[in-house]
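HUMAN: Now follow token order:
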Amino acid sequence: MRRASTLVAAACAAALAGCEARPPSALEAAVMTRVKRLAIRGRGDRNPLPDTPEVVARGREDFSHYCMVCHGLDGQNTGVPFAAAMSPPVPSLASPAVQAYADGQLHRIIVGGVWPSGMPASRGILNDDEIWGIVRYLRHLPPAGSLGEPAVYGGAMPPVPGATSGIPDAGGR
């Protein structure tokens, strides 16, 4: 019995040794895009927040606190060292594939995450207005690279026009 257990453990270790994260093939990406498009509900859910510069600015601020670690400040992975190495890679939120989702679908993705990707659920972390504000920001993303690299990866955090974070700067102000 002990020998069988050792053989099973060795076989599992050998099988796992050959596993590695790799980008999905074109076929895998196409299939998963189609499956997600069909599986993610919320197509008819409407964003209750108005599409105003103030709401977009607040959405940008909320995005910069929760989402920027994986998506960069601009939603296009600028300065995120692991974005392309994930399997599947972290998508640019400005991509046609992401922008094709309805607002309600984006809301549901943010609330519930996406399995089997690295997209975590924000349920219990962000409130509904914050999530809907982030969806508004996603519809108004700035040009790639225009906001720099997230401070957590060595970049400077640019100010958010019209928003206040309440976090003092390095001088304590």
